[in-house]
Every structure is written in structure tokens, then in C-alpha cells.
Amino acid sequence: MFKIFIDGEAGTTGLLIKEQLQREASLAVLTIEPNLRKDVSAKRVLMREADLVVLCLADEQARESVALIESLGAQAPKVVDASSAHRTQAPWVYGLPELCPEQEDRIAQAAWVSNPGCYATGAIALLRPLIDAGVLSRDAAIALPSVSGYTGGGRSMIESYEQGLSPLMEYYALGLEHKHVPEIMLYSGLQRRPLFVPSVGNFSRGMVVQLPLHPEQLTRAVSRSALIDVYRHHYERLPYSEVRVKLEVPTRLDACGLNGTNWLEIEVATHESSGQCVVLARLDNLGKGASGAAVQNIRLMLGLARARHN
User: Fold this and answer.
1) Which of 56, 100, 118, 277 is catalytic?
2) What confidence tens digit (pLDDT) does each residue in 246-286 have?
3) pLDDT tens sequence across 98-142
4) SS3 letters for the chain?
5) Which pTM was predicted?
6) Catalytic residue at 56?
């Protein structure tokens, strides 16, 4: 029986991680009294008892908890950090098992794993296979228009939408700065900064990340079937992949279609005569984009991974 402590279990991501972990017969979730959630001594006791700690905290709080865990020395548990505090920092291992064939083993052997951002998960899932296959160059100028449900925006955004105080759709980060851009570049292999344009829709969960491409942006002419082959070659050889490549020609795509699952689906749409295409990644921003990804990493780190689960 492995013991898990979720530091920040009262938040949206923490609650969903706890819900999934409680279905596992081989896992026990350690709980802390609500009035002790910020009590350092109480947290230290639980961290020392745990085999693995999940951090569902703001970045600065996550750094403080990591320092607390480090102070335990040989009694320190493994860590999955769901914040953005450590995603591009060594020695943290990036928690996207589908990144490349070696990543599953890296996560399985790691003591510290940083959970990917939700938008970054979709963007990297689209970009990395194309760059690895040489279809898209590392210095390609690309755009990533994206939309997410409002639960990805934290408590204040959730309350605003659920009280009917927010618009049907809004764009943000229009200063073209977003914390997911560095991890997108680092783990996709891009050398040129992508134009990332996120937006929020008036729905709670769901996400679509788009990668529109003109033929001039590709290193060689490729058909729709060839693009699908690139993605299938990348993902279908990985035993614990939660990425599915759709073969059907898409006509419409429901951003909420994978809600409640841990899957990410890739769709390829093309205009054959012009050579234009758009590749889309659909996921639940709180599933594969957050809690589902954390549970996948926890299973790998504890040797409990199950292939292709929902």
C-alpha cells in the first residue's frame, strides 16, 4: 500500500486527483485537517509518512513545499508538482510520458516530476512528432490558437463564470506573454517563439489547441495520410500513451468531447488543393491537462502504470 499526500487537495485539481487515487486499491490518500493545511509542522509529519507528495499549489507555495520536502533528507518522498514552478528546471523530469520513447522510463525512475501545463500538453503533442520526423523545422514560425474551459483559470475565474459575470468567450494574454510558452519551446524542440493566443469559453471543462500550417512552413510536401502516419508512429508504439490519433476526416470538433477522461485526441484536417492543414489536439483541461496527467505520472513513479486507461 503506497501512501499519497496531496498538498493543496482542496483546489479543483487536487480534488480530482484525490477522486481518481481513491479508486486505486493499492493507494492510500493521507488527509490533513482543513485548519492545518498551512501548518508547516503538520504537513511535515504527513510528508515524512508519504511515499509520494502531489503539489497542487500556486508556484511560490510549491517552492516552499519542495524546500520542506528537501529538509526531510533520506525520508523525503517522491514529488509530482502540478504547478508551473519547476517545469523547465533541472533536475525535475517533465511529466509527459508521450514526449518521446525514453520519457516513460525517466518518469518511472524520477524522484521529482513536474506536471505539464494544459495548453502545453496539447501544443507539444502536436509539435514534437512533426519536429522529430523532420516535417517541421525547429525555427518554423507557427501560431497556436487555443481555447479552454474556465476551470483552468483558478478560483476567481470559476466564480466569475458560474455567477454569470463573464462573457461567452474572451481572449487573454494579449501581451503575448504566457507561462506555458517556455515549456512549449523546450519540450517541443522549437527554437523560434510560437505565437500563442489562448482564450476562454463559457464552458467549465474542455480544450482545443490548434496548429495551422501552410505548405511553405513544412520542410516537404506531405499528405493528410502522411501526417497521420507521423503521429501514429510517435504515439502508438508507447505502451502507456494516453494520446489517440483519429483517422476520420473531421468536419466539426466539440471542445468538450473528452471531458471526464484522461485522453488527448489528435485530429488532422487538410485542404488538398492548397496544401493547407490544421492539426488539432483535444483534451479535458482538468483531465489529461491536469489531474489525469498527475495520476498517470504517479502510477509510473510507483510502478503501477496501466496501459491505455480512461
Assistant:
1) 118
2) 999 999 999 999 999 999 999 999 998 999 999 999 999 99
3) 999 999 999 999 999 999 999 999 999 999 999 999 999 999 999
4) CEEEEEECCCCHHHHHHHHHHCCCCCEEEECCCHHHCCCHHHHHHHHHHCCEEEECCCHHHHHHHHHHHHCCHHHCCEEEECCCCCCCCCCCEECCHHHCCCHHHHHHHCCEEECCCHHHHHHHHHHHHHHHCCCECCCCCCEEEEEEEHHHHHHHHHHHHHCCCCCCEEECCCCCCCCCHHHHHHHHCCCCCCEEECEEECCCCCEEEEEEECHHHECCCCCHHHHHHHHHHHHCCCCCCCEEECCCCCCCCCCCCCCCCCCEEEEEEEECCCCEEEEEEEECCCHHHHHHHHHHHHHHHCCCCCCCCC
5) 0.96
6) no
